[in-house]
Amino acid sequence: MTIDSPLRGIRVIELSSMIAGPIVGRLFGELGADVVHVEPPYGDDGRNSTTEFLGSEGVFHSMHNRSKRGLVVDIKQPDGRDVIRRLAREADVLIENMTVGTLDALGLGYEALRAENPRLVYVSISAWGREGPLALLPGYDILIQGFTGAVQSPAPDLPPVLSPSLVGDPVAPLIAAFATLVALRDRDATGEGTHVTTSLLQAALHM
After folding, report:
1. Pairing, β 69-72 against β 57-58
2. Which is the catalytic residue, given 92, 169, 186, 188?
């Protein structure tokens, strides 16, 4: 470990898109970890998600996928899933922010990859949490704002106004990154990885 690269030697596999998941990977990459951002053949959704572009890439993608290497893998295909399993065997951390149950259905959930690598710290960021009536639904920051009351009407006769900045998306990855560092520290002591979970909803409720 060095002062400028405290996470040098940590290997991270990132199966995430848009904002929350990629921020965790970016933070780890900026601290010296070797982060591999895995994209589907059609590309990360963040590449085309905004009207602001840097060259041919959406600004979210350019902002949050620096300090990483890239790999195209089709995890819907058996060969693609085998690639992820091989990567997971050698990884310290896996980050994902897919809808709850998506990776489990593909045989790439926490329990499946834990069997491949008991030392793996598996990080999941969902929209609504992993339990409860909304758990299996997808969600974005704008929905979280409405659900938590961050969208407010400035006057009784005026329509609701969105928060001027994102709420859950920038905070959830900070929670996840901190918890992941703690999990890595615990793994060094116990030899066992764990499943780190948080959500956009949890993050917004902290604000």
Report:
1. unpaired
2. 169
